Each structure stands twice: as C-alpha cells, then as structure tokens.
Amino acid sequence: MYPQHKSLIFFVMVFVIAISFRVIAQTEAEKYTAKHAVYLEVGGNAGQYAFNYGRLFYQKGAFKVTGGAGFSLWANRIEGSTIWKPAIPLEVSTLIGKRNHHLEFGLGITPYLEAEINSSWESGTLIQSKEANYVAAILPIRIGYRYQKPEGGFFFRVGYTPFFDLPDKLRENWVFQPIHVGLGLGVSF
Prior knowledge:
By secondary structure, the protein is mostly beta strands. Helices cover 13% and strands 62% of the residues.
C-alpha cells in the first residue's frame, strides 16, 4: 500500500469517528420536565372536538408513552330540540423523538351516550322522537406528528385518526371510518 493511501485512509477514519461522536452527542434525548398538557382537539379521537388533558408517564431516551382523557358534547337535533350526547375520549400514545418533534402512534376508546330515535312519516311530515339512551363507543387509531418542548409551552399535534364504530344496540357490525383527521392546540407544563 502506498503511503498516500495510508494517510487518506487514516484521515477518512478520523473524520468518520469524529462525525459519529458528533451525531451521538446531538441525538441524546432530553428529559421531559413538562409532563402535563391541556389542549383542544378538533376531529381526532372524539370524532368532532374535545377538551383534553394528557400526561407523559414513561420516557426512556427517544421513546415516550402518554395517556390522555377528554370531554366532548355531541349535538343531535330532533323535532326542533337538541339532544346532547356526552363523549369521553381516552387514548394511550407512544412518541418517538428526541427533543421537540415526535412521531406519534396511538390507540383509544371513546364511549359516548347515544339516543335511540324513532322516525315516522305522518301526513308528509317527518316525526322523530327519542326513545332511550344507551352507551356506544368508537375505537380510534392515531398516526401523526406532535410538537412538544421538554420544558413545556406551546403544544401542537396533527394526525390521521381513522376509527371503528363498535357494534351497539342498533348495529350489529363493526364499521370502519377511514377518512378522519385530528388537530390539537394547547399548552404543556
């Protein structure tokens, strides 16, 4: 081997080692001190909108696990009056990211109060009446992006959130809703 090649190989090896140390130093995950978040999400795992609270309860390196719960009221118009249906979105998500930017994967369940409605036509007019309430649920899935600083502050999440409607009192089959997204804005602390 020629002396020039030895010096070139040595230079390349030193360069690669120096770059690898720099990459390792920059990719260390920051420890999150802001473990709580409150935010409004439109769409998402509640279907329409929800006010949510989330908490980071596990972190190791770039991997984090969060849990969240929210509250929403869905409205149905029946015979000129509004029936309010409360919903409680619950979700567990994993975050992969080292600092502010994260890839987010989540799974949840959103139980809600549903109203059984009877509809009939009388003299060309649609007559609707509420019969009974029962509990129904959807199972949302989340694949998205989350912006959250380790020390807290502005919080943002956006994701693809398709869901399954579970069988209930009026429907015996699972129904998949593939086109659904969620956008959340709030603060972490």
